[in-house]
Specification:
Elements (H helix, E strand, L loop, with lengths): L1 E5 L6 E5 L5 E5 L3 E4 L4 E5 L4 H11 L5 E5 L6 E4 L7 E14 L3 E5 L2 E7 L2 H4 L6 E14 L4 E6 L4 E5 L3 E4 L4 E6 L3 H6 L4 E6 L2 E6 L3 H23 L1
Antiparallel strand pairs: 1-2, 2-7, 3-6, 3-9, 4-7, 5-6, 8-11, 8-14, 9-11, 10-11, 12-17, 13-16, 14-17, 15-16
């Protein structure tokens, strides 16, 4: 399998080229184009219960599409649903916690489980459910905006806004807390944060969906009025 990421870092699309008989599974609706001989099958990956958990609690698709190369060099273009970046993670008998909505595609040998992060994550407002992805193979994750990869050494820490966290190594110690006092939490626009301590790998995104859409909604009435007045 060969993955080429085109048009990074905020309009990315992945071209996945496969050897004959090789497979890749992807979120439904992510296919942009594919070779004419590539085979596609839609399944409830992992069975009914796992698919229901993935769909109801993480916002991921109930069904996944599996693409199989019939001929050598068959390919598929995969794109995330929102403007952003794509990162390729080569998994080697390891696990990664991925924020709901950031899983995009994976090769055979990668398992996807819905992981409930408990009450402390509930108040974070972002990342209520994480996907626990494990195994050996190729994983594609997507972001809103660009992806920034961070390697934490032993006992090295970083504080990340919950909305900017895409994925992290489950071996990393983490604690969700207020950015400062209640006044700062309520009025600074920062909300809650995650304190992560290495060693391990983590991935951040440069933009946050909730902030973007809130900003968009705030300006919509003004834009509509301008359009009305301009046409008047």
């Amino acid at each position: 399998m060969e993955v080429e990421i085109l048009y990074q870092s905020t309009s990315a699309i992945a071209k996945v080229s496969l050897e004959k008989g090789e497979k890749i599974q992807a979120e439904s609706g992510s296919m942009g184009a594919m070779s004419t001989t590539l085979s596609m099958e839609t399944t409830a990956e992992g069975g009914l219960i796992k698919s229901l958990n993935r769909s109801l609690f993480s916002g991921e698709s109930f069904f996944l599409n599996t693409y199989t190369a019939v001929q050598e060099g068959d390919f598929v273009f995969l794109a995330p649903p929102i403007p952003g970046d794509i990162s390729v993670v080569e998994m080697n008998n390891q696990s990664l916690l991925v924020q709901s909505g950031s899983y995009m595609a994976s090769s055979v040998g990668i398992e996807i489980e819905t992981k409930w992060e408990g009450a402390k994550s509930f108040f974070a407002g972002e990342g209520l459910v994480m996907l626990e992805i494990s195994g050996t193979g190729t994983l594609l994750i997507s972001s809103f905006g660009a992806i920034h990869h961070v390697t934490l050494n032993a006992n090295e820490s970083i504080v990340v806004d919950t909305g900017h966290l895409v994925a992290f190594d489950p071996k990393i110690q983490y604690e969700i807390k207020r950015v400062a006092g209640w006044k700062s939490t309520m009025f600074s626009g920062e909300g809650l944060v995650v304190d992560l301590t290495g060693p391990g790998e983590l991935y951040m995104q440069s933009r946050v969906q909730s902030s973007f859409f809130a900003s968009l909604l705030a300006t919509t009435p003004e834009m509509i009025l301008k359009m009305i007045n301009g046409n008047g």
